[in-house]
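User: Predict the structure for this protein chain, please.
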Amino acid sequence: MTERTRNNFPYEIRDLDPEINAQISKNFSDGLPRLVQVGPQKMLIPAQFRQDAENYYNFPLRASDVFVVGYPRSGTTLTQDLVWLLLNSLDFDKAKLKSFIARVPLLESRSVTTERTIALVSTSSERAASLKSYTSTLETLSRMTERRIVKSHLHFTFLPPDLLTAGCKVIYIARNPKDVVVSLYHLQRNSFGRPFTGPFETYFDYFISNLTFFTPYWDHLHEAWKRRNEANFRFFFYEEVTQNLRDFITEVARFLDKELTGEEVQKLESTLSFDQYKKYISETDKHMNSKEDVNDDFVRKGKIGDYKNYFTKEMNERADRWIEENLKRTGIVFPFDF
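Assistant: Here is the predicted structure, written as structure tokens:
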């Protein structure tokens, strides 16, 4: 474990305007908690973040840690499963013994998991135990003896400042924001803890107005993009991953210093191709794919261009202007046209 001085969290945390908070809350069943904006980019997250921001920022790193980072619904779940399988000798049977939220804890889970969500899960089931662990992720990670894989949706600024110099490896994955917002909408609409009840058009407006969790989307990507050439950092686009899964598997394996036989690459490719991966997730994480529990279809479609089934002409034009403006501002280069 890397020894380092504990730092104060150096960024301002401000309450979201109460009127805006109330207006957004009306579109969620049972409302939303109080929200805050963090740092100069004003990352949006529940106010619980205030209690844990310093703990996330000072998270005790181990040189062997692997972080999987990305804006929500960008391919982090598939990526974390690939990393876990690579670090566990492709032990598919072992993967079935624990939920992926236990195998790969979300660093900031305590800040985004509601007590209501936990209460809605049968307290006698493994589902409840897995979800309750979401409120003690920092403790869970500290107790792990195996090589740790840590997932996070936080902006890079709010992660430990020595993450890339402490020996840790970081994999970041980005996705077309048009498809991200559609996937987020379905995730929130089917969430048991606080389902979104408004129309897609309203959710789209919140997303591009930086009023959904972990926005601004572009600042999230930009912080990672600036680090893409660091030795211990890899930046991937979801669209390239799904179109050439074999190359993604071999590149991540090489990054993690794992040698694979041709047969092993083929087995991973078969498992992680989307239709098969959906089946794999349904077997290993039934509790994340049943509306009886937390979420209906946690892994939904993974389809490139699904936004075309949801965007009106006006929405697409508005999104295109928003994308063009931010591509110019950030210098990010996507490997496809919008």
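The radius of gyration is 19 Å.
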